[in-house]
TrEMBL record:
InterPro entries: ADH-like_N (IPR013154), ADH_Zn_CS (IPR002328), Glu_dehyd_C (IPR031640), GroES-like_sf (IPR011032), NAD(P)-bd_dom_sf (IPR036291). Keywords: Metal-binding, Oxidoreductase, Zinc. It holds the Pfam family Glu_dehyd_C. Its cofactor is Zn(2+). This is Glucose dehydrogenase. Residues 147-358 form the Glucose dehydrogenase C-terminal domain. It comes from Corallococcus sicarius.
Amino acid sequence: MKAVAITFPAREVRVIDVPEPRLHSPTEVKVRTLEVGVCGTDQDILKGHHGAAPKGEDHLILGHECVGEVVEVGAHVQGLRPGDLVVPRVRRPCPHTRCPACRHGHPDFCVTGDYTERGIQGAHGFCAEFFVEDAAYLHRADDGLRDVAVLTEPLTVAEKGLREVAHIQTRLPWKHTPGKALVLGAGPVAQLGAMALMRAGYETTVYSRSPKPNVKAEASEAMGAPYISSKEVTVEALKEQLGGVDLIYEATGASKVAFDSLKVLEENGVLIFTGVPGREEPLELKGDEVLGQLVLGNRVMFGTVNAADSDFSAALEDLARFRARWPGQLEKLITQRHPPSDFAKVVEEKGGIKHVITFQGAGR
């Protein structure tokens, strides 16, 4: 079968022929890949910042954002059958008994760093005509989400972040309603994050670099989230305009704008970091000022990565809610669908919002 892989040590991306996978366990499921999303993590793998082949191999099949269709199930699999639409999780637990997170079913909080991630670290991904996965790592999706279920994994970033915020803000027992939220960035994780925040009841604004008009601004404002360009409005002016926010959802990987945004965060507010820094931009941080903002304002900053079982389930439920609330908007987040042979080109030259590799029709 055909698969998109990166070879090591050259880090060359190409379509290769690999054996079609087979079931080796009664709890496994064989899946025909339909679509795979391309994101900044794939770009980092190509640049050498991330990525490792499975042990003993010289290539890694890419792709970690995926939706597929079940074609075969093992004898002990329950709840899935051929024809079902499924979304796979990405991270697998580390093997160490000393890791309480992995031993309790939360590899997204792994403390050893020795986990594997399909399509990223030590395990082949989903950018192939077929893949085999244990049923425990598959989430059944409603067939009505077929055209947008590839957005599930990037949405889980927001789902996990909001889940953590809910725990943190139990410290404010008098606060029963969400307030204002600011989303930094306007890419797929940011757009989906804005949707999740609005669904949760936050009055949400998107703050990103490019001045209007642009496709990202159109997408955010179509769902009712005002778009403001950081090239036109400084953080100080943004504070005056918004009057402060209760939650900041960072989805840029730009450290300067992330820390500058603290000026907009109200007392008792929370700043979520989701973007992995990749621009290597200089940052002059006034340590005393930042520490003062955190301590004197009871503010919280935290980073979040990957997602848990519950976050994937929540994301699939929210995708259905989003379609009902904003008809056609999820579809508009997908800028273009490409053949597998375009993977490297898409990673290097992608514009718009979300680009997807499609295998629809492959293997039939």
